[in-house]
Design goal:
Elements: H1 10-29, H2 50-60, H3 67-82, H4 88-104, H5 107-132, H6 138-218, H7 222-251, H8 258-261, H9 268-277, E1 281-287, H10 294-314, E2 319-327, E3 330-338, H11 352-363, E4 367-375, E5 378-388
Parallel strand pairs: 1-2
Antiparallel strand pairs: 2-3, 3-5, 4-5
Helix pairs in contact: 1-2, 1-4, 2-3, 2-4, 3-4, 4-5, 4-6, 5-6, 6-7, 6-10, 6-11, 9-10, 10-11
Amino acid sequence: MAVRLPRPHRMDVYIAVAGLLGGLLLWGLGLATRTARDGIVVLEGRWWILLPLVVTSACEALRRTMPRTALLVGWAALTLDTITQGSLLTVLMFTDLVYAAVLYGPPATARRVPWISGLATVAFTVVPLGAFRKPEALLIGLVVGLVSLMPAMTGWIVRNHRDAAEAARLRAEQTALLAEMDRAQAVVSERARMARELHDMVANHLSAIAIHSTAALSLDDPDTSRQALGVIRENSVEGLAEMRRLIGILRDSSDDTEPSAAPTLDGLGSLVEGARTNGLDVTLDADHGDSLPAPVEMAAYRIIQESLTNALKHARPGRVTVAARQSDGSLDITVTSPYGDRDRPSAPGSGAGLVGMQERVALLGGTFEAGPESSEHGKIWSVRATLPVTEGEPA
């Protein structure tokens, strides 16, 4: 299976062509870095200059796609160039290969090339100075440092800045993603809270309206119809008032409207009276103290309100009990109603009430149970919730 080489980057091809043309121009003008009389020139003749020049320019085309291979082949070409009359463009292109190997190569290559270049610079400084005993020998180490160590360190610095910029960009993207997730979660949470409030505030009144309107239509009794219409009017007025308060809160961002729409357990008496007006036989046992947190009071009120609404729609005729007692750092709520098979509920339900109660309890880190139970008075439907009233982390 043939191995397909990676396609060179367009800019690298331009660099390779420019280096080759520049080297050919110097070669055509007869300009070289050494003369035939220099002792290190082994391959005499101007034609030998072209071989390392062409090889190095070909390596330049691979400086991004194959940086390590390009550096190794370029180093071999530079070694060959040192025993010819030499070309300045071959040396310049090799420095760019060192720079590209550090900048575009793997992390291991980026770490090793500066170290190798540094060791080579020290070696070519110390060894010639010890061999020739002349200050001019230091120029060899200087040239090696300019050709290898300086481009390697430049590539290392540029790579660090590039990696830092990339890390900052990734952090910015992650921050933006987290912010978007938080915004979406906040929107979902707010929509769920509004759904719970709308359901708990309006469902009780609308259920009573539906039940009494059915009674008014089915019974041919003027007194019963008049009484049912009175209950319908009362519930419609109260429901409309609740809706207006909620709409006022949504339109006004100030905090002064919150207390008017945040019921407390002090209003349980009125809530129970309203349930009795709607036809429920309700008993209330409340011992909750006066120092409950506002979120706990509101959640407890809404749970009892929704439980009474469910009893109005689904319970068989009988006694409904409501208990709210504070003990051992928690508020215990229990609502029971007669349970049994019915042909159909007095008013349609969607099941959102139980979901809303579970959500309210979960937000406060409490426990919630709802379902049929056996009691001394027969089968009952019970709703039990425990809300912590001490400071702590929500579940």
